[in-house]
Amino acid sequence: MEATKLAQEIKSLALELGFAAVGITTPEPPPHLEVYFRWLERGYHGEMGYMAEPHAVYLRSNPAELLRSCQSVIVLAARYSAPGPYLPSLSRGKEERGAYGRVAAYAWGEDYHYVLRQRMEILVQRIQEKLGRSITYRCFTDSAPILERELAQRAGLGWIGKNTCLIHPRLGSFLFLAEIFTDLPLPPDKPFLPDRCGTCQRCIQACPTQCILPNRTLDARRCISYLTIEHRTAIPVELRTLLGDWVFGCDICQQVCPWNRRISPAPSFPEFLPQTEREWLSLSDILSMSQVEFKQKFRHSPLLRAMWRGLSRNSAVVLGNLARLGEISRLAALELLQKKLSNHPEGLVRQHLAWSLTQLNSDLVSQTLREHIQQETEPMVRAEIEAWLTQNNPS
Ligand code: SF4
Ligand code: SF4
Predict the structure, then answer these.
(1) Whose CA is closest to atom 5 on ligand 2?
(2) Is the pLDDT of residue 61 over 60?
(3) How far is the CA of 7 from the centre of ligand 1 (A)?
(4) Element (H or E) spanning 182, and its range?
């Protein structure tokens, strides 16, 4: 089959399968590698050591190495459920606010790694049926060192916004990206060159931690998405209040983007529809869950990525934030924090529970912390408590 016709057929098959957009590019090095190198040099990747690992850097710079016979990359986009506009507080409504933490929209459904890989395998199968022969290919979705947004921009799917997301002019940015590397020689699409952000600054102004940098990159060390999902140790004290009610990820810089205003909220695949109790998580439930229960409850969910201790740590911080802001009963928060501080098995979580207690502005905080430190064995928890007691009760 002639290459242009085959490319058309592949695109039709992808759209028929449910993908929202598809484009084709070459496996050449991505267009803005220098920006990526500078980002790494400045340490903006934080604890994500795998981003700076030499072999991973080499592969990001040379995508063709992921499949030696690669001639084309088919870049696919799939919509996930889009949240409504961002409401800074009380987005659940006062009466139903409760002690719940907000979850980024991409994690409301099933894990995209499984869902998209399965759809890509079906797409390859259909391409092979059309051709009457097998092809050489590899499928990826956030599963290999690939600068996915760069390839998507070069495949004509959209531009990289100031918030660092790939923005499709009709579909917005609540998109998963996936790639099929193949030995098929296909004509590449034209890159998407216009920068439709123009003079807009909404994402930069709305970002709670001011971590959006001028060159379409982020200081990941301050980004709530990174802090709540990838960061494995203590959340820096100065950033804890800025987490607000985000217990997993953060959608603010996408929610305020005008290009997401008139998009369909429906996902491309039914597996991405919001599952029960996924948009908001009960903080008390998370803090009471064992590691085994966590793995069971969030099986096949992107929430697993934060791991039990990470999600529990985040829940502790959000509880303190909600109580400080008066969004939940301070007395109920105090009781829950006292109980969990005394019995949570994970030191990292107790450290953040102790911090959350200090957000309550209650006479009982000092007393609770003084009593707790008598039995606390974990040095980082003791240090957190001692620092606060020294600062607040200098005598
Ligand atoms: S995800 Fe949140 S914290 Fe990160 S850049 Fe966007 S608005 Fe800022
Ligand atoms: S909010 Fe404005 S500046 Fe930010 S990505 Fe969207 S259009 Fe670009």
Answers:
(1) 161
(2) yes
(3) 36
(4) strand 175-182
Give kind and range of the element (H or E) at residue 171.
none
The strand pairing partners of 180, in sequence order, are: 74, 139
Q: What is the DSSP string of 14-81?
A: HHHHT-SEEEEE-SSPPTTHHHHHHHHHTTTTTT-GGGT-HHHHHHHH-GGGGSTT--EEEEEEEE-P
Nearest to 23, CA basis, from 178, 193, 188: 188
Domain map of the chain by residue range? Answer: 3-80+109-182, 282-395
Tens of pLDDT, residues 142-185: 989 999 999 999 999 999 999 999 999 999 999 999 999 999 99
Residues 6+ apart with CB under 8 A from 315: 101, 247, 281, 283, 286, 287
Rounded to the nearest angstrom, the distance between the alpha carbon of 224 and the centre of ligand 1 is 6
Percent residues over pLDDT 90 in the chain: 86
**Nearest one of 255, 262, 163 to 215, comparing CA atoms:** 163
257 pocket-lining for ligand 2 (C-beta < 6 Å): yes
Distance between Cα 23 and ligand 2 center (Å): 23
Residues paired with residue 65 on neighbouring β-strands, in sequence order: none
The pTM score is 0.94
**Rounded CA gap, 386 and 369, in Å?**
9
Residue pLDDT, tens place only, 19-40: 999 999 999 999 889 989 999 9
Helix axes 330-343, 347-358, angle to 10 degrees: 150
- Asked about 142 being catalytic, the answer comes back as yes
- The one catalytic residue among 142, 189, 195, 245: 142
What pLDDT, on the 0 to 100 scale, is given for residue 395?
58
Q: What's the rounded Cα separation, in Å, for the pair 125 and 2?
A: 19
Does ligand 2 lie within 6 Å of residue 163's CB atom?
yes
Nearest-CA neighbor of 158 among 303, 318, 20? 20
